[in-house]
Every structure is written in C-alpha cells, then in structure tokens.
Design a protein that fits this description.
Elements lengths: L2 H16 L6 H18 L11 H21 L1 H14 L4 E5 L2 H12 L4 E4 L3 H5 L2 H7 L3 E4 L2 H8 L17 H12 L7 H11 L1 H6 L3 E4 L3 E3 L5 E5 L3 H7 L3 E7 L3 E2 L2 H15 L5 E5 L4 E2 L7 E2 L6 E7 L3 H6 L19 E4 L2 E4 L7
Parallel strand pairs: 1-12, 2-3, 2-4, 4-7, 5-8, 7-12
Antiparallel strand pairs: 5-6, 6-9, 10-11, 13-14
Helix pairs in contact: 3-13
C-alpha cells in the first residue's frame, strides 16, 4: 500500500470507528434520523388520504416537471436573465445576481446596514452558502422562527439535525425544563402547552418587531417572477408580511418555467414528505395600494421592499462544463429520490430542486 493509500485508509478507519462511539456526531445523527422518521408518521394527517395516493400524484406530474427542469438546465442563462428582468420591471423587486457565495454575503450585509437583528425561516440556502456564520461574526443576531430551529437555539444545539424536524430530538420534559431554566416559566411538558407558550410570547414579537426578514424560496416562476413559499406553522407568512424588508436568498436552480410548474413543485414537496403544509404564498410584489386617486404606492401593511438575491456560484459552471454533479440542479428538495427516467432498461436518478 502506498503512503497516500495508508493515509486514506487511516482516515476512513477513523471515521468508521466514530460510528461505534455513543457521543459521535454520526451516532447522534443516526438516532435523530430514527426519531424524525417516527415523528413524520405520527404527524401524518388524514387529509392526505386524497382520491389518489401521494405516489400517484407524483406519477401524474413527474414527466411535465422533469421536462421543465431539463429545459431550465439547457437554457439556464436565458431563464436567469428573463426572471431578473421580470422581477425588476413588473414585480418591483430589487434583484441582485451573485456569481459567488462571497458576493451574496456582501449583498446581504449591505442590505442590513445598521440592523443588528434578522429574523429568518428555515433556509437550506442560508446554511449552504455560509451566510449564517458571516452574520454571527459581524455581531448580527439571527432569530429563528421555525419552532424546531427555535428549540435548537434554546438548547444551543451544535450537532446535525433532521431537516424536516430540526428540534425533533428534544423531549417534552427537556423543553419544559429548559424554558423554566432560561425564562423562569412553568409549563406543562406537553406539545400543546409548549406551542401555546411560544404562540403567546413570540408571536407578538414577530408581528411587531421585525425590520428585516430572511427566507429562501421553494420555487420561482420565470414567467411572472413570483416567489413561492410553502409552510405549515405560519411563521413565513408573518415575517414576509410584517416586516420592512424581506430578503429572499435563493439559488438560481429554484427557477421553474411557469407559475403552474412552481405550484407543482410545492405540492409535490408537500405530498411526498407528508408535511401538513397549510400555507402556500405567492409573493409577486412588495405590499402596495392604489386606493388614493388610483396612484400606486409601495409599502402598505406588508413588506415595503422585497430584495431577491439569486445565487449562482457553482451552478452555471456545472452546466457549461458538463460537470458530473450538474443534475443536482434538477433537485426540488422533495426529500425523496422518486423522479427517475427510464432509458433502455437503465434507471437514472433525476432528483429535481431545493426551503426554504
């Protein structure tokens, strides 16, 4: 074995050994994943027993959405240019095209200005490009609004978590004890009591104190520039409305051809993951009114500004240079590799695009 081979062997062996350690990050994540899978089925709602099954729903819409994703990848630069143009001229968004993650960092910091607190929803894009660490290093407080992420902040949790339920690993008793320790409140160790506490205490802050909010997008419709977001808690609806400025930080792969494709994306995400997503938002402009002499004024009760930061980084390069990971651009973050293409008895994964 070569010296390089020995080095790689020891590295892999070390990682395998960690799997048997009770306190290793891998063991902890494995336990969380099991809990998350169990919780997913505990929360399964009878409203998802439609006339068709979730799988039948996906099969009915798969070919059209797969075709749409391939069309986007084959014409990625045209789609980005079209989307930016419509967002600026029609939707009255302020739009930035960040060629790198670092450019996106600078744009976010410039948009925040002197603001020292930002409220965000669960956003894989924010984590992927490293903006959360940048904000923390600048002394900017990040306030999570998804309850699972709020609980992770409460416990100062550093390990990996289950994306569909980031706080699923904490028991009712642990949460109640932690709330008593941190805030001096006595709460029954039940899900209902814990949710009621946050509804009464945190909801007022979200409705009144948010100056800048940060979200990603489940999809963006190229034909009309609409930002599409799906959720179950109502936190995204609140922080994208009850705010002065809504920043949308999103990878360009979230762009789809039409508003109908955007709806298909979010409904497939909902049906495949069995998430009880009660709200779908189509954001097509800042809040506005024309009730005074028909003169349109931006900034009524909702957001005064919608700032969209489209992040490229590796995506266009992957398509141009035909890199092996370019198909990731097709992914719609449905958390299930169900989109496949059958070609001469061979099945190629197509996983098709990425929350929030």
């Amino acid at each position: 074995m070569t010296d390089k081979g020995k080095e790689l062997y020891e590295e892999v062996k070390g990682k395998i050994d960690q799997l048997s350690e009770d306190d290793s990050v891998y063991t902890r994540f494995g336990k969380i994943w099991k809990i998350g899978c169990l919780a997913k089925y505990r929360s399964f709602d009878l409203r998802f027993f439609y006339e068709d099954t979730n799988r039948e729903f996906v099969e009915a819409h798969r070919d059209q959405l797969t075709k749409s994703r391939e069309d986007f990848m084959n014409n990625i630069e045209d789609y980005v240019e079209k989307t930016i143009d419509i967002m600026k001229k029609t939707n009255k968004f302020r739009v930035f095209y960040a060629k790198t993650n670092e450019e996106a960092h600078e744009i976010v910091l410039n948009e925040l200005g002197d603001i020292k607190v930002i409220y965000k929803s669960k956003s894989l894009e924010a984590k992927d490009i490293g903006i959360l660490d940048v904000l923390k290093n600048k002394g900017i407080e990040i306030k999570e609004t998804d309850l699972g992420d709020v609980l992770c902040q409460l416990f100062d949790y550093k390990y990996p978590s289950y994306s569909l339920g980031p706080g699923i690993q904490f028991t009712e008793e642990e949460i109640a004890n932690k709330l008593k320790e941190k805030y001096g409140v006595e709460i029954e160790p039940t899900p209902e009591a814990i949710v009621d506490y946050y509804r009464k205490s945190y909801r007022k802050e979200l409705l009144n104190d948010v100056k800048v909010s940060l979200t990603s997008a489940n999809a963006i419709a190229a034909d009309d520039g609409s930002i599409v977001l799906i959720e179950n808690e109502g936190n995204i609806s609140i922080i994208t409305r009850a705010t002065e400025k809504h920043i949308v930080l999103v990878g360009i792969q979230k762009i789809v051809s039409t508003v109908h494709d955007a709806l298909s994306v979010v409904k497939i995400q909902q049906r495949i993951t069995n998430v009880d997503a009660g709200y779908i938002s189509f954001i097509s402009s800042p809040s506005n009114t024309a009730d005074i002499q028909g003169k349109k004024v931006l900034g009524m009760y909702g957001a005064k500004e919608v700032v969209v930061i489209l992040v490229d980084d590796w995506r266009t390069k992957a398509v141009r240079e035909n890199l092996f990971y370019k198909d990731i651009i097709k992914c719609i973050s449905c958390k299930s590799w169900v989109f496949v293409q059958k070609r001469k008895r061979k099945i190629d994964s197509v996983c098709t695009n990425s929350q929030r």
